[in-house]
Amino acid sequence: MQDQTPHYSGIAHEPARLAVLRGLQLIDGVAEPSLDRITRIAQRLFEVPIALVSLIDADRQWFKSRCGLTAESTPRDQAFCNYTIEHDSVFVVPDARADRRFSSNPLVTGAPHIRFYAGAPLTVAPGIRLGSLCLIDTRPRDFHPADMQRLAALATQVVGEIWLLELEKALGTGLPASLPPALDAGSSLVEQRITGAQLRAARGLLKWSIAQLASAAGVSPATIKRIEAIDGEASVRFAISQSLRSTCEAEGIVFTGRYSSGAGGAALAP
């Protein structure tokens, strides 16, 4: 029997992941020839009937590029990619009908009759995975380490194309591009992290306890206490900092100043 628990409920850094996905405005957009070329290459390279660039939104997976499939989206609770975005490595299901997690999935029991699945996560920042480049076959098959490396390399190309699309959009509008920290020559991971002073200010404005913020952001109370204990940047992972920041921003908080500076603060948007 298939596990009926929604698999996305416990995904780490989910608020930050969704914030990045929506900020890039990839969902429901037009087809992108650069991504279509990659899915066509993947389909031919691995000799599968279906290759997709799948983006995982709050309640659905949407196919930014699809080769061999007519559907534009599926409900998120049916998405194999929910498992892919939990890890940095390639996720493989050799035979979905023999896997209790997927054996009663409508995408297995009905069209497109998935038996084999392999997905490489689209990682745009540490811990932030927007979806996957995935392969689907209607028959079981093996997937070797060399195959995983090739698929992961193609997924890296997809991520590169996503940022190029963002740059192109920014150049056309005159607005700054939402570059990933690792590719932004004008900033660093440290400069992107929230400070203790900012976090204390944000909680004060929201009238939230540490426990309330921890629950909303999916971050441990001990981590929040450690960040708030100093005025400057705390040594926490970038994804944790982004999750806290995006959770507060979703409630109307606007952060001011450099994140790495104790002088930075927070304000409640009017």
Automatic annotation (TrEMBL):
PROSITE patterns: HTH_CROC1. It comes from the Bacteria. SUPFAM superfamilies: GAF domain-like, lambda repressor-like DNA-binding domains. Coiled coil: none annotated. Residues 199-228 form the HTH cro/C1-type domain. Pfam families: GAF, HTH_3. This is HTH cro/C1-type domain-containing protein. It comes from Methylobacterium iners.
